[in-house]
Specification:
Blueprint: H1 9-13, H2 20-31, E1 37-38, H3 50-61, H4 74-88, E2 97-100, H5 103-114, E3 120-125, H6 131-137, E4 141-146, H7 157-163, E5 168-174, H8 186-199, E6 202-206, H9 222-225, E7 233-238, E8 251-254, H10 257-268, H11 276-287, H12 291-312, E9 327-328, E10 338-340, E11 343-344, H13 348-359, E12 361-362, E13 364-365, E14 375-378, H14 383-398, E15 401-402
Parallel strand pairs: 1-12, 3-4, 3-5, 5-6, 6-7
Antiparallel strand pairs: 2-8, 7-8, 9-14, 10-11, 10-15, 13-14
Helix pairs in contact: 3-11, 4-11, 5-6, 5-10, 12-14, 13-14
């Protein structure tokens, strides 16, 4: 039986994932028993801490398995508010907080709540893969802001100024960044906040990696850098990365009450409340022991140092030192135009396919993040696996020769 009706225009307009073929091939090879070194993971390799799992088990045994308020249970909202006060010295009332089924749903709800067709959203490049699609599904138009890798992917304010128009409705920030690991400076955050106030647009700040920073400054938020901009800031966060809870699917939003109320209304007509058991687990994550976070960050720091040392030793590779998250984003374009076994490498998809087929390394091509010169490798995996991956990468690149 085949489907004969046309699909919705919004779906037809969605661009297919440029990484789908690579991902499918990697899974196929692994299923065939091929030893794949997977450096493509976007999640911590650590297990969820025991006290968090125990809180979920207790919730089940206590029968906490019914509907909850659409925007989350009150005690979780209070814990989120306490986090903002402790980490950023920002005060949010429960009415200014909403809990969702993961950070991605928060972003989707916010876009649906604040964007009208034709509104413009500025997105720095490189960007997380889902940002453009989320904007486009809400009818918005994306304006890309290229960032210079030779300046640690810092924002170019001359270009940013030229992108701001009367239709500019929002700008999305992600710091620490996926895929680069870059962290925006306080001065840059302050300048963006001032522009948002001056031109009256919304800053959507995706802070999902805020606790995974390798400096001694601790978490930062753009609203705490310029408090008078708080009414222009919508904060997206969650427990996925910090507490190794990607599968639990709990994200949250903090911002102006009108935005939170609108996003909650949208959520009420889509998923309704987040999973009740996962909410209790998230509550335990935020209010319980935090030593697991520090251990995980220390492991990421060690792995980051190792993978950077290896990348620096490979001819032709340049890579910005990550200041947070758990990714490296090396420029491999030096090898474009070269070939091995009769196959020429012309872009990041070619490179990803070559590394997968010839070296059995899985990475994510930079085109998925808006910059075709690069590839993203994750160090959210065991150090021995990273070591093997770097050995294979160095050997595979060494086999490429000029035409």
């Amino acid at each position: 039986m085949s489907w004969t009706f046309p699909l919705a225009e919004r779906v037809r307009n969605l661009k297919p994932s440029p990484t789908l073929a690579i991902d499918t091939k990697a899974k196929t090879l692994k299923a065939q028993g091929v030893d794949i070194v997977n450096l493509s993971a976007g999640e911590p390799d650590f297990d969820t801490p025991e006290h968090i799992k125990e809180a979920a088990i207790k919730a089940i045994k206590d029968g906490f398995t019914k509907y909850t308020p659409v925007g989350g249970i009150p005690e979780l909202k209070e814990a989120i508010a306490a986090k903002f006060e402790q980490d950023y010295k920002l005060i949010y009332r429960p009415e200014q907080i909403m809990v969702s089924t993961g950070g991605k749903q928060v972003l989707y709800n916010v876009a649906q709540a604040v964007l009208d067709p034709g509104d413009e959203v500025i997105i720095p490049v490189p960007y997380w893969v889902s940002y453009p699609a989320i904007v486009e599904l809400a009818g918005g138009n994306v304006k890309f802001l290229p960032c210079d890798p030779y300046r640690d992917f810092a924002l170019d304010f001359a270009v940013l100024g030229s992108l701001i128009t009367s239709r500019t409705r929002a700008m999305i920030l992600n710091s620490p960044s996926n895929p680069t690991g870059a962290v925006y400076s306080r001065d840059d955050l302050k300048t963006v906040a001032e522009l948002a106030v001056e031109h009256d647009f919304v800053i959507i700040t995706d802070d999902i990696y805020d606790r995974i920073r390798f400096d001694d400054k601790g978490p930062e938020n753009i609203a705490s850098v310029l408090p008078e901009a708080q009414d222009h800031v919508v904060v997206v966060n969650g427990v996925s990365k910090t507490y190794a809870m990607t599968g639990w699917r709990i994200g949250y939003l903090a911002g102006p009450e009108a935005v939170v109320k609108a996003a909650t209304k949208i959520q009420s007509q889509s998923t309704s409340n987040p999973n009740s058991i996962a909410q209790k687990a998230a509550l335990a994550a935020l209010t319980g022991p935090q030593d697991g976070v520090m251990r995980m960050k220390e492991a990421f720091f060690e792995r980051k140092n190792y993978i950077m040392e290896r990348l620096r030793a490979i001819q032709g590779i340049s890579c910005v030192e990550p200041k947070g998250a758990f990714y490296v984003f090396p420029d491999l374009s030096f090898y474009y135009g070269k070939e091995a076994s009769g196959k020429e490498i012309n872009n990041s998809l070619d490179m990803a396919e070559y590394l997968l087929e010839n070296a059995q390394i899985a990475g994510v091509p930079g085109v998925a993040f808006g910059d075709d010169r690069f590839m993203r490798f994750s160090y959210a995996t065991d150090l021995d696996i990273i070591r093997e991956g770097m050995d294979r990468l160095e050997a595979a690149l060494g086999e490429l020769v000029s035409k």
